[in-house]
Design a protein that fits this description.
By secondary structure, this protein is α+β, with helices and mostly antiparallel strands. The protein folds into 4 domains: about 130 residues, Alpha-Beta Plaits; about 70 residues, no CATH class; about 250 residues, no CATH class; about 90 residues, no CATH class. It has 24 helices and 12 strands. The chain has a 4-stranded antiparallel β-sheet with strand order 3-8-2-9, covered by helices on one side. A 4-stranded antiparallel β-sheet has the order 5-6-4-7. A hairpin with a 2-residue loop joins strand 5 and strand 6. The longest helix is centred in the last third of the chain and has 40 residues. It starts with a strand and ends in a 17-residue tail after the last helix.
């Protein structure tokens, strides 16, 4: 929930300022507002070094039980890691240079630099090294003192022996300070140092937890210094003063914090220019929902906390998009494995695993309700199919058409004459079938009814979801009543004008003629109610409210993505199963496993993105202001 915050002015004796701020940091419920106009303090060198060391250490696998037995001060250890990493970078540069240099002069082979110098001195000659493009060398007549050495890639290499240094056209002179042999010895030595330094860094990296704890301690000290730095001293150096945001639920705790101190806290008026922070306090499911809420935006302090709503509907939408009990079981197994594998996880990571367990359980429940298991074709007489929620609705729909003998029934009768002998809705679904291309029975009516029911259920979920959005902010936006009536009227009216049969029709809640009549009344009446209520609340701004008719209509239709994504996943799963059946046992297993893993990955991404989207865009549109700043009190940070 979102807690109201109050603004307080805190002042008292400067001698007790340090004690007060230390107590406030341990209490962790005061967000201080700086009154000092001094330049803000920069992050200390110790913090910068620790951050750099942690960044380096995270590149290596850590084994805490192999941490150095005598850990140095975290900052000292951080300096050692940073210096070792800098040395490693220099060694890598040297390795690259030596490798390139060896490649450059390798055509001349290994020789003794001292022997070359002796030959030049005793023979009074100068030995030079040259290279030249191979195609040019073939066209050039070389002087006798130029000796061909070899070819590498598209370059020919030569040496020239003269009394004095000589230049040759189209030839590039090469300077060789160290022969290949010496360079290779240096390269071996450098690589040995690289190996030693990397082992040293791996050893240091095992102390990552100590570095993180050290960073947290230094950050706590830095935050404490920042708050003290922001305090004002209006009466010289005798009295300090500072403002703070305090949650309404912690006002008594503030009095307890100040007891025994010569410090006073007085409530003050919130200025129009103040950016009031949003203080959110949630537990269990609400806290998991809060994690999802912060993905998009922070609620304004005037918002109602959407955390629990987002959590519930995210789980429902995720399950509806995945629409497979088998995939839900895979999710659940992965989530349980992670839960037992990483038992020490805390905070958001722990909540993420709990969220995965909840979402996977929802996928299993919804998959069972619609009889979907890894895209397998389950016959209508299978107990899993007959006991499913969607099959019961399909049977009701078939019996509705059988009873009325309407146009839809006549169309089925023309295409499948056997349905005339059907005794009940289930029998109707079985007999409205045909043989497919591969000899398998295709239950046309059953698939058609299932698809229509799932599509309609997605629209109903949209109406249901948006209705809650309007109801949450009904006191702020009275026109929400009209738009709720408009959505219900649209559900009744629009299917009736195209002679579609809805769940409300075949369950007996309302007949098609009544739905057509009342639906039109509610559509027009809903717009009228929205306009009138908006006029009372906003006066002439009510004319702008009329434009919401298009917005509400399109937002409801946006929930069709639940059906579309679910259908796409089902088709892909079924396609991979059919492909696997055609490829034999070994190839088939590979195709089925690979196909379902691919579909599982795509379904996971689609379900996550679109479940959040329906909450953050369609639902937030009517019950969320956003743009808030999260309450950030001075507190003791702890390493995870």
């Amino acid at each position: 929930m979102i807690i109201d915050v109050h603004k307080y002015l805190i002042f008292g004796a400067k001698e007790q300022m340090d004690e007060f701020f230390s107590l406030a940091q341990r209490a962790g419920f005061l967000e201080f507002i700086g009154l000092s106009h001094k330049k803000s303090l920069e992050i200390t060198d110790e913090i910068k070094t620790l951050l750099a060391a942690i960044k380096i250490a995270k590149k290596y696998p850590t084994h805490p039980h192999e941490a150095p037995p005598h850990l140095a001060e975290p900052v000292v250890l951080a300096h050692q890691i940073v210096e070792a990493h800098a040395l490693l970078e220099r060694l890598f540069d040297e390795e690259r240079f030596l490798t390139a240099e060896i490649s450059r002069i390798s055509a001349f082979g290994d020789f003794s630099a001292q022997d070359i110098r002796d030959i030049e001195q005793e023979g009074k000659r100068v030995i030079q090294y040259f290279c030249m493009k191979s195609d040019l060398a073939r066209e050039t007549i070389l002087p006798p003192e130029v000796i061909y050495v070899g070819t590498e890639y598209d370059l020919d290499y030569f040496i020239a022996i003269n009394r004095d240094k000589t230049r040759y056209p189209k030839m590039i002179e090469m300077v060789i300070e160290h022969p290949v042999g010496e360079l290779r010895e240096k390269l071996f030595a450098v690589r040995d140092k690289i190996s030693h330094t990397e082992n040293e860094l791996r050893h240091y990296a095992n102390a990552l937890a100590a570095l993180q704890e050290g960073l947290v301690n230094y950050l706590n000290e830095h935050h404490l210094r920042l708050v003290k730095h922001d305090a004002g001293f209006p009466l010289g150096q005798t009295v300090f003063v500072i403002e703070a945001w305090i949650p309404k639920t912690r006002l008594k705790a503030l009095q307890g914090l100040l007891s025994g101190l010569d410090i006073i806290a007085e409530p003050i008026e919130i200025e129009p220019t103040d950016r009031i922070p949003t203080c959110m306090e949630n537990k269990r499911l609400g806290k998991m929902g809060e994690d999802l809420v912060h993905i998009y935006d922070t609620p304004a302090h005037t918002d109602k906390d959407p955390s629990s709503w987002v959590m519930v509907f995210f789980s429902i939408f995720f399950a509806m998009i995945v629409s497979d009990a088998g995939y839900g079981l895979v999710y659940l197994m992965i989530a349980l494995f992670l839960k037992f594998k990483f038992r020490d996880l805390m905070g958001s990571n722990k909540r993420l695993i709990k969220l995965s367990i909840i979402v996977s359980s929802c996928c299993i429940v919804w998959g069972v309700l619609i009889a979907s298991f890894f895209g397998l074709s389950i016959g209508p007489d299978n107990p899993l199919r007959k006991t499913s929620f969607i099959h019961a609705l399909a049977v009701k729909k078939a019996e509705y058409h059988m009873e009325l003998k309407d146009e839809a029934y006549k169309e089925w009768e023309r295409d499948f004459p056997n349905v005339t002998s059907a005794t009940d809705g289930h029998d109707f679904l079985v007999k409205a079938s045909k043989l497919g291309e591969k000899g398998a029975t295709k239950y046309v009516a059953l698939e058609d009814f299932y698809d229509n029911i799932l599509m309609e259920f997605s629209l109903l979920m949209g109406i249901f979801h948006l209705t809650f959005s309007f109801l949450r902010y009904l006191l702020r936006t009275w026109s929400g009543i009209g738009w709720i009536v408009f959505m219900v009227g649209g559900y009744l009216y629009f299917p009736s004008i195209i002679h579609a049969t809805t769940i409300a029709n075949f369950l007996g809640f309302i007949s098609k003629p009544a739905a057509l009549e009342w639906g039109l009344r509610m559509v027009l009446g809903g717009i009228g109610i929205a306009f009138v209520l908006s006029f009372f609340q906003k006066r002439w701004g009510a004319f702008h409210e009329l434009m919401n008719a298009v917005q509400v209509f399109s937002d409801v239709l946006s929930y069709l993505r639940l059906y579309a994504l679910a259908l796409a996943g089902m088709i892909m799963a079924n396609t991979f199963n059919e492909m696997g059946e055609q490829m034999g046992i070994f190839g088939g297993i590979l195709i089925i496993v690979f196909g379902h893993l691919t579909n599982l990955g795509l379904s996971t991404m689609g379900a996550t993105i679109h479940s959040l989207r329906l909450n953050f865009l369609e639902w937030y549109h009517y019950s969320f202001e956003g743009g808030g700043r999260l309450f950030n009190p001075l507190c003791l940070r702890r390493s995870k």
